[in-house]
Design a protein that fits this description.
The structure holds 2 protein chains of 2 kinds. Chain A has helices spanning 2-15, 17-26, 62-71, 75-79, 83-103, 121-125, 134-144, 179-187, 189-214, 221-228, 233-243; strands spanning 42-44, 49-52, 55-58, 113-114, 117-118. Chain A is mainly α. Among the domains of chain A are: 9-58, no CATH class; 93-207, no CATH class. A 3-stranded antiparallel β-sheet of chain A has the order 1-2-3, with no helix packed on it. In chain A, strands 4-5 form a two-stranded antiparallel sheet. Chain A is elongated. By secondary structure, chain B is mainly alpha-helical. Classes of the chains: A mainly alpha, B mainly alpha. The interface between A and B is medium-sized, with 36 and 22 residues.
């Protein structure tokens, strides 16, 4: 109950600009968005508005922002008006993803769960959303063109878009000459590197989706101690005492 | 000593830049703090990988 009272009084303080400024300065932050120190601070004054690093952020429709962030990295942030971060995420994630795709000769992103070729990497690559979706269409096409009994792809099979994100022809067997081994032979280490670049891009976008949905992640306790300095230690100890 | 060409290590650069910036970006809103956090993350990951690299080199030399 005391805790809830504290939150309500915080909200009252934030309603008045002067009071808000003095409230923020207690935490080492300015209302114009500039941080006076590197302390990470996050409070919330309504369901969708949060205060981070002295900046008030309206997360708007959170599920929609998360969906947009998944479909196109950074799009969720643009929707929320966080343009700098949106552009940063879009450039970082899409460039890593595209670079990986090119390094792997355009064959590193495909969806397949056939015997001998369980491409689990695609689950992580799909974190980038829209750009990985053509692989699902190609997977459906090759599944329809593959005989379930023999596991062999029909000779009539013709992938869409010149084979863009198309799985290899089946069967794919370990230690035998097939299309996957041909890709490895052609691109060498680039195939592996391309796979990891695209996987990491997909994983990074999961962080971005979370950021669009709920705001920045909290800093680990070890990092917080280092950044906040000694003056916070008594307060931290007091909090720990209360928790215990 | 390295079983690959040293130029392969350059693949690490774009990846570490993307990872560090996204890590920083998902922990702050202020651009200066994002860049600071990214720099620290980049340094930490690079240092960690350098330590592992040295350990592997020593093991390779010993065994």
């Amino acid at each position: 109950m005391d805790l809830l009272d504290g939150w309500e009084s915080r909200q009252d303080k934030l309603d008045s600009p002067i009071a808000a400024n003095s409230f923020l300065s207690q935490w080492g932050l300015k209302q114009d968005g500039e941080a006076t120190n590197t302390k990470p601070q996050m409070t919330s004054d309504s369901k969708n508005t949060i205060l981070v690093d002295g900046e008030r952020i309206d997360l708007r429709n959170r599920p929609l922002a998360a969906l947009l962030a998944w479909l196109i990295p950074g799009a969720g942030h643009f929707y929320q008006g966080r343009h700098t971060k949106g552009a940063l995420f879009m450039v970082c994630i899409l460039s890593a993803w595209v670079l990986g795709f090119v390094l792997g000769g355009g064959h590193v992103v495909y969806s397949s769960w056939a015997p001998g070729d369980k491409r689990w990497h695609y689950i992580l690559q799909a974190g980038v959303g829209g750009v990985a979706l053509p692989a699902l269409i190609q997977a459906n096409l090759i599944n329809n063109a593959t005989n379930n009994e023999t596991g062999r792809t029909s000779e009539d099979y013709e992938p869409y878009w010149g084979g863009f994100m198309a799985p290899p022809l089946r069967p794919v067997r370990e230690s035998q000459a097939d299309e996957v081994s041909a890709w490895y032979a052609r691109h060498g280490a680039g195939y592996e590197m391309g796979t990891w670049y695209t996987v990491i891009a997909g994983l990074l976008n999961i962080l971005v989706i979370y950021d669009a949905y709920g705001g920045p992640l909290s800093i680990p306790i070890s990092g917080r101690k280092k950044e906040s300095g000694d003056e916070d230690e008594p307060a931290n100890k007091e909090t720990e005492k209360t928790a215990s | 000593m390295l079983p690959i060409a040293p130029s392969y290590l350059l693949y690490y650069l774009p990846l570490i830049i993307a990872i560090a910036l996204v890590f920083g970006g998902t922990r702050h809103e202020n651009t200066r703090l994002i860049l600071q956090h990214a720099w620290q993350t980049g340094r930490w990951i690079t240092g960690f990988m350098a330590v592992i690299f040295i350990i592997i080199c020593i093991l390779d030399w010993l065994l």
